[in-house]
Amino acid sequence: MIYEEVRSFYQCFGGKKCVIGYSCQGREIYAFHLGRETCAQFIAVYAVHAREWITARLALRHIKTGLQRGGGWVIPLLNPDGALISQTAYPLWKANARGVDLNCNFDADWGSGRLNTKIRGGENCMGDYPFSEAEASALRDFTLRIRPYVTLSFHTKGEEIYWEYGGKGDKNGAELLEKITGYTAKRIYGSAGGYKDWCIQKLNIPAYTIECGSDSLAHPIKKLGELKKCYKLLKIFIENYGKQA
Ligand SMILES: [Zn+2]
User: How far is the CA of 38 from the centre of ligand 1 (A)?
Assistant: First the structure.
């Protein structure tokens, strides 16, 4: 299972690392440091949605690839409980184990998303209040501690890049991501409460969501090779975006 895969990678990892918090069922949420520590830091998060657990494997690849310039933190598996549900019981499950969609649980116009509901289930449930979920509040606390200059969220699928929220966002980074992946930068409407949305609205930093993999693939994507266009994404993006040395 993907949690065990990330956990054994964590145990063998020689660099700086930490546990940022625990899932609602008590699993550890791991973070790995890449590159330099003395410069402005990025945060990259993967497998926020359960059925998108293949992105955790992409994260491990990004960690192994490393960085020549810049530095920051990689969180491969934000939703370990949900990933287990997707891998063992309900392949299309997106939420955490409490049936809350973590990417609707952040404090950015919380509850105003077009599809938001309070009914627990595999997707679209916004939770009882912003950051009601252990996984979302762990990522909030870690982000407030690191104060990153940019964040990246890796999802599947559709080969699209989202960069804007409420009229704010940095299109330059989206154009760089387009160049790296061949994907298309888009504006989306009717969503709220996402990590990217919160970073842009509340922290005033650029934040990007990358929807990896062709839309013609079925959820859950099981082969990392389907995300080939994103293999070098983190390295090239961080080495070229902004002015951090
Ligand atoms: Zn997603």
Answer: 31
As for how many domains the chain has, the answer is 1
> Could you tell me if residue 127 is inside a domain?
yes
* Residue 18: strand pairing partners: 31
Q: Which residues contact 184 (CB under 8 A, 6 or more apart)?
A: 159, 160, 161, 178
User: How many whole angstroms from 103 Cα to the centroid of ligand 1?
Assistant: 8
Domain containing residue 70: 2-233
pLDDT band at residue 243, thresholds of 50, 70 and 90?
Answer: low
In a domain, 244, yes or no: no
**Interval 131-185: pLDDT, tens:** 999 999 999 999 999 999 999 999 999 999 999 999 999 999 999 999 999 999 9
